[in-house]
Structure of UBC core domain-containing protein:
Amino acid sequence: MANEQLYNTKCAGVKRLMKEAAELHEPTEMYYAQPLEDNLFEWHFTVRGTINTEFEGGIYHGRIVFPPEYPMKPPNMMFLTPNGRFELHKKICLSISGYHPETWLPSWSIRTALLALIGFLPTQGGGALGSLEYPKPERQKLAKASLAWKCRECGCVMKDTLKPLTEESEKDSQEASALAEKVQFKAKEPTESKPSTETENENGPVAGDSNSSNVENSENQNFAETSPGNSSETPSASNPAPAQIQTPRFSSNFTNRHHRPSDCDFSLFITIPLFVVIFAIVALLLARRFLLL
Ligand SMILES: [Zn+2]
């Protein structure tokens, strides 16, 4: 990957993203995600519509943007392909239940996030801002239409992006459903500027739905679907007591499109030696004073 020359590979975030990029290099039946050529901190993903739901048969594309602090802070995701469940081009934070509230677990990965997203597609939007309540037939139409959808930025055509479904896919599919029971997807706060150069919505939400014309305009969305997270499949780092699962939020900044990851642990290298030097000088001065007395 060309990125290796561009980024400080000692930075935890860079290391982690490169590792995940290598692990996800091959498309699977259910998902695929890779960084953009020129920005390790922005990826495009493709996910298969949830099996046995109105999204079955659909393949959807989107962006993932990582904060400089990743994996300590979670990524944000947004859909680019019309799907009838999430508004397009809206940054959504994925919140995964964990032991500590407001905490993203660094052990969660992009794969986890993608599976959670797949599992979450068929859940009720509950009328929350940012979620779309298209009727089932409309979603099915969009699912069909999605196969021909092409990303203008990375060139992916949906029907060619994932591996064909096999029996193996069932496992991922089940994992996706299990994850969906303990996640939240929340719209970002409207404080940040909206990306203005997004790929456009080619297939467009189907006519007759009042939400469709407002897709670009509703900045302030805050949809949060919750569910009692007592499912058993939790990623390695946390296996919280089922009754106590809480819902940390992904609350990363979305401003790092051209972030330089070498900054991320730079301050530590400065502050720690500085403290040591100051401490040594003070100790020396004190010692000298006592000796002179
Ligand atoms: Zn793309």
Observations:
- The first helix runs from residue 3 to 6.
- The chain has two domains: 4-223, 260-292.
